């Protein structure tokens, strides 16, 4: 058996596929709205650019659902109550997100200095120390600072959502009876966390997600994130199909109250994820989603590098737009060429960023002094 097949079978390729498609859509969305390249292409292909501008941004919903699924799977792999201390788990997630993010912010600022003469509207006019500290703490939106790179809001939101899910699972652990009750206690241990997540998910879908002023808070996005988490827990239940029907009906009820395309996409993503996960669980060695070993390898690579691509594509976008402007390129043909070049170079840059920044930062031993301090 080839090494490509062995590696692909150890992964959830359907999750990689969703992450890969969503990441590519986000890159194309940003390339369609920033800089003179986007203007040139829009004049030549207005309908295509309108699609990328309107629908490309909704790929975030795919990330939200997948993020909730992977977080619940990591915190409760077999449906058990939360294991481990909350401060350590949150600190670990923070470091995984923030170290590559700060590297990407610094790279973006360096590129901004280079391109400022040609693209003054795309770069920050000034950068303050409090602004940098806010980004380092992933609090820039909550504190009212201008983002230093596109997508910064999502990195901060990922941490908020993980913290909220972690808090619900901690609460579920605290609410469990300490002793006695036998089978009832075992059932509560399995059901308490999903029940709390479902309640907050519905609160988000029916209330919080309908108020756009709340879009800097996790409650606004927890509907989609919670769907992903619930897909994981339902996949462990013998009543999976019934649970999915009930969950679908509840989301459709929220859409009946107020239809939102983003929530409809989140529901479709959650149902597709549930179907693929069920097939994977039934026959994990067959990888029914992708039968070609080489294609499976590429999907796994694109999924693995999705966060790196999300972080690194904007500096590439800045540089290519500066070249376009400096060389006084005109016409939609040159615009399309440069847009495709920026897309391709972003993917190549993601390979390097993942290898030289994301992976090494994940190996850093920064200790657990902060979690211990928080528990003190």
What's the topology here?
Layout lengths: L2 H7 L3 H19 L3 H10 L1 H10 L3 H17 L10 H30 L13 H8 L15 H24 L7 H24 L11 H18 L4 H18 L3 H22 L10 H12 L1 H21 L5 H32 L5 H7 L1
Helix pairs in contact: 1-13, 2-4, 2-5, 2-13, 2-14, 2-15, 3-4, 3-15, 5-8, 5-10, 5-12, 6-8, 6-14, 6-15, 6-16, 8-9, 8-10, 9-10, 10-11, 10-12, 11-12, 14-15
Overview of this structure, please?
The protein is an all-alpha fold. The chain has one domain (3-370). It is 74% helix and 0% strand. The protein has helices spanning 3-9, 13-31, 35-44, 46-55, 59-75, 86-115, 129-136, 152-175, 183-206, 218-235, 240-257, 261-282, 293-304, 306-326, 332-363, 369-375. The radius of gyration is 22 Å and the shape is globular. The protein starts with a helix and ends with a helix.
Q: Please tell me how large the radius of gyration is.
A: 22 Å
Average the pLDDT over all residues and give the rounded result: 91
Percentage of residues assigned to helices: over 70%
What is the SS-derived class?
mainly alpha
Kindly give the count of domains: 1
Count of helical stretches: 16
Characterize the main sheet.
none
Order of helices and strands: HHHHHHHHHHHHHHHH
* SS strand fraction: under 5%
Catalogue the unreliable spans: 4-9
Distance between the termini: 52 Å
Name the overall outline.
globular
Count of individual beta strands = 0
What are its keywords?
376 residues; 16 helices; mainly alpha
Give a concise summary.
This protein is mostly helical.
């Amino acid at each position: 058996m080839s090494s490509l097949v062995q590696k692909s079978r150890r992964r959830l390729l359907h999750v990689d596929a969703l992450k890969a498609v969503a990441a590519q859509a986000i890159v194309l969305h940003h390339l369609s709205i920033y800089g003179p390249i986007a203007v040139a292409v829009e004049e030549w292909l207005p309908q295509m650019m309108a699609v990328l501008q309107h629908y490309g941004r909704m790929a975030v919903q795919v990330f939200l659902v997948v993020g909730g699924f992977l977080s619940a799977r990591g915190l409760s792999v077999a449906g058990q109550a939360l294991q481990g201390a909350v401060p350590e788990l949150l600190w670990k997630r923070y470091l995984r997100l923030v170290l590559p993010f700060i590297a990407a912010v610094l790279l973006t600022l360096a590129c901004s200095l280079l391109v400022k003469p040609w693209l003054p509207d795309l770069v920050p006019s000034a950068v303050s120390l409090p602004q940098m500290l806010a980004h380092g703490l992933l609090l820039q939106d909550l504190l009212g600072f201008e983002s230093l790179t596109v997508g910064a809001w999502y990195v901060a939101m990922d941490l908020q959502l993980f913290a909220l899910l972690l808090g619900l699972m901690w609460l579920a652990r605290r609410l469990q009876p300490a002793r006695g009750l036998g089978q009832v206690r075992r059932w509560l241990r399995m059901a308490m966390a999903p029940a709390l997540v479902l309640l907050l998910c519905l609160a988000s879908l029916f209330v919080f997600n309908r108020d756009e002023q709340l879009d800097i808070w996790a409650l606004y996005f927890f509907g989609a994130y919670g769907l992903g988490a619930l897909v994981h827990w339902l996949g462990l239940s013998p009543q999976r199909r019934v649970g999915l029907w009930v969950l679908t009906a509840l989301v459709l009820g929220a859409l009946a109250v107020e239809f939102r395309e983003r929530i409809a996409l989140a529901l479709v993503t959650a149902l597709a994820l549930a179907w693929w996960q069920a097939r994977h669980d039934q026959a994990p060695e067959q990888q029914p989603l992708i039968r070609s070993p080489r294609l499976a390898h590429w999907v796994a690579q694109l999924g693995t590098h999705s966060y790196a691509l999300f972080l690194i594509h904007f500096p590439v976008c800045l540089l290519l737009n500066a070249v376009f402007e400096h060389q006084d390129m005109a016409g939609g043909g040159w615009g399309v060429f440069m847009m495709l070049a920026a897309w391709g170079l972003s993917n190549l840059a993601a390979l390097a960023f993942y290898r030289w920044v994301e992976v090494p930062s994940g190996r850093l031993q920064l200790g657990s002094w902060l979690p211990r301090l928080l528990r003190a």
